[in-house]
Amino acid sequence: MFSKSWFFFLFVLCILFSLVVESRVINETRFKPMEEMKKMRRVRAHLKKINKPSVKTIQSPDGDLIDCVATHLQPAFDHPKLRGQKPLEPPSERPKGHNSTDEIYETIQLWAQSNELCPEGTIPIRRTTEKDVLRASSLRRFGRKIRRVRRDTSSGGHEHAVAFVNGDQYYGAKASMNVWTPAVTDAYEFSLSQLWVISGSFGNDLNTIEAGWQVSPELYGDGYPRFFTYWTTDAYRATGCYNLLCSGFVQTNNRIAIGAAISPRSSYNGKQFDIGVMIWKDPKHGHWWLQFGSGVLIGYWPSFLFSHLQKQASMIQFGGEVVNSRSKGYHTSTQMGSGHFADEGFGKAAYFRNLQVVDWDNSLLPLTNLHLLADHSNCYNIKAGKNNAWGNYIYYGGPGRNAGCQ
């Protein structure tokens, strides 16, 4: 039999235990809001850094806000080597063999369909919101590709179907690619089609310049294909970012918003819509310029951002990339390109046409010694060809998970 004193001792012990638990719960509930407050302060400080004061804001049909920011106030000029400067004038000449030096403006972005544009002396920048940042797994990850890279393409869940040339010195590349709306089935995956200008080893010193279109629910909050750019000088470890989300790319154009949705898009067995992209190194100043659409200059990556690409590129790639997170334990159903294999051809598969490179003499040349690489050809594949109308071309893409891709 227990004595009364023993029961009293147990009673007191229970009270003390409940007080300790209650105190811990109170402390945790206090701690969580404090952590949330700190996180939101960091997010808002970051937004203040990248969202510059605008002279005008345009509402896009897809919900984006496009801020018209004075060119000298854009994020690029936060860089110590650019602070206090203004954008350079466009290069006096483009690569030899380029069809035209005229800038032909087409309405190829949703925000510009109202014909309300940013005034001269400003550039359009897609406004970044708190929701945009909070969708990322961390503030460090926001606006960046984070992955490990190996020699052929990459690891860490990134899969490719690409055509590439290497073994020479390259000073740029050009191609036209059709635009689709591939399904992305996981919030942290993306699907893109782009060209890569590459130099350095596939290790910590990899330099890349990239441009094309992508669907990225994490970055943009929707499934629209969007015109994008990227760069890195250390294999995606600490440098570089998408679009204008860090100091780097200098935009000079007031009519194209990097990161804004592209419209129209291609349809299966229907009309095909493609965009032209050219990246080349200006022989005079050494910076890497970007051209989009029908001859429209967008801006440039200053050469000082890079190590190896201060001189030239050693590889050019064209094609598609997806993230396969295997979040459900099997291969993703995220589509590449149209979501159909290369074998289906025109009107059904995604393509790149008129693939060219820029040589040491600033001339556009057709490709020689073209290589094809598909990380998992049962999931996404690629085929190449050549004819008089399209020059060098590729079909690529696929559905992801299927009977042959598990």
Automatic annotation (TrEMBL):
Start and end residues of each stretch annotated as Disordered: 79-100
Bias (Basic and acidic residues) ranges: 91-100
First and last residue of the signal peptide: 1-22
Start and end residues of each Neprosin PEP catalytic domain: 152-406
TM regions (residue ranges): none
Stored InterPro entries: Glutamic_endopeptidase (IPR053168), Neprosin (IPR004314), Neprosin_propep (IPR025521)
Keywords: Signal
PANTHER family for this protein: OS06G0474500 PROTEIN (PTHR31589:SF57), PROTEIN, PUTATIVE (DUF239)-RELATED-RELATED (PTHR31589)
Protein name as annotated: Neprosin PEP catalytic domain-containing protein
Gene source species: Artemisia annua (Sweet wormwood)
Lineage, broadest ranks: Eukaryota, Viridiplantae, Streptophyta, Embryophyta, Tracheophyta
